[in-house]
Hints:
Shape: globular
Number of strands: 4
Structural class: alpha/beta
Order of helices and strands: HEHEHHEHE
Strand order of the largest sheet: 3-2-1-4
Radius of gyration: 16 Å
Number of helices: 5
Oligomer: single chain
Mean pLDDT: 80
Largest sheet: 4 strands, parallel
Low-confidence stretches: 1-7, 9-30
Helix content: 25-40%
Amino acid sequence: MWSAKRRCRSRKFRKREEGSSPGQRGLKALSPAVPESVLIFLDFDGVLRRADAPLYCFEKPLRLAFEAAVRLIPGAEIVVTSTWREVAGLIDLRKLFSRDVAERMVGVTPIGEGGRYREILMYLRATGAEGRRFVVVDDDPQSFPRGAAPPR
Length: 152
């Protein structure tokens, strides 16, 4: 069961986030051609927590690495595609991230038939973002049709 008060991060860990984190190592070598604006469709299970991790808890190194990567893209905005959106609202989901990354979370995909790919397309249409650049961070390739082209 989801609880907004449930915390997986300790106070000690949150204080360490203020400085540079281990997840930032090696990320500064990214190309200077990083787009200034991109939507990041984010799944949680399999991306920020492995199958054997406690339910509804991110693994710290995975979250730190994701947050560090997001910080390298100035205009990145995050849309949650995870099934966690079915048991927690956007406000509660934001609480799982550092404040600066949480502020970039702009929405969740609608729940619909046809899997994640179709839900992403529905989100893009509903928000008028069909021509916008996006990337999907998900561990399940079966959620997406082979050779799926982005919407035009």
